[in-house]
């Protein structure tokens, strides 16, 4: 399975963001990937502290999703991207990842569970958390678990996704810059790959606010593709044989004692 991770920064101008997203999808599609992964909140950037993204939110049949579905059909590539989705709580939408198949069909939506109430920011003032349940979608014969940005700091979610069958963890993010934040990002991505013996695919926003450093990590914690700081994309191949080999050599999932139902 070939995956392209796109790195770019969004603004609160949704029309401009859709144009940017489409440009990068078209560029990445030149590599004929099975899946193109875009960052968290690529439909519209977060509001400043004390602001609101409520008026920017859309339903899953709105213009942003429709544009992604059209691009997926044209390029015959699945797409995963982040948006703000209208919720039943007025003015407090969900921070949602949507997965669109190569036919344009909506395969699933993950609503961010762990809102970023840390490092001086309070995402829960603007957004509504999703239900506490893992979301796994199947693309090109592989099972992908969806998680968003701050979720990376909660290993129980990644383990729940792997227990639900995920072979790949997909982590779109808008990882805020700051002292040691880039180190945290890279360390936690590698840790989630190593402890779960799975691939991790991370597409991040960049620019003045966010760290960038989008990458794909294999089940041994080795970065096999990366973007750096600038706008761009990187392509990597997810190898089922590599995954099986690592899990044979390091059967830590089979050897665990906690969280395993006794028989």
Entry keywords:
single chain; 263 residues; alpha/beta; Nitrilase/N-carbamoyl-D-aminoacid amidohydrolase; six-stranded mixed sheet; 6 helices; globular; C-N_Hydrolase; Carbon-nitrogen hydrolase family protein; C-N_Hydrolase_sf; hydrolase
Your description of this structure?
The protein has about 260 residues and is an alpha/beta fold. The radius of gyration is 17 Å and the shape is globular. The model has no long low-confidence stretch (mean pLDDT about 95). The protein contains six helices and 14 strands. Helices cover about 25% and strands about 25% of the residues. It has one domain: Nitrilase/N-carbamoyl-D-aminoacid amidohydrolase, CATH 3.60.110. The strands form three sheets. It has a six-stranded mixed sheet with strand order 5-4-3-2-1-14. The chain has a six-stranded mixed sheet with strand order 8-9-10-11-12-13, with helices on one face. A two-stranded antiparallel ribbon has the order 6-7. The N and C termini lie far apart (about 35 Å). It has helices spanning about 15-30, 65-75, 155-165, 180-195, 240-250, 250-255; strands spanning about 1-5, 35, 80-85, 95-100, 105-110, 115-120, 120, 135-140, 140-145, 170-175, 200-205, 215, 225, 230-235. Keywords: Hydrolase. This is Carbon-nitrogen hydrolase family protein. Pfam families: CN_hydrolase. Belongs to the carbon-nitrogen hydrolase superfamily. NIT1/NIT2 family. GO terms for molecular function: hydrolase activity.
Structural class: alpha/beta
Portion of residues in beta strands equals 25-35%
Spatial order of strands in the largest sheet: 5-4-3-2-1-14
Rg on CA atoms, Å: 17 Å
Total count of strands:
14
What spatial form do the alpha-carbon principal axes imply?
globular
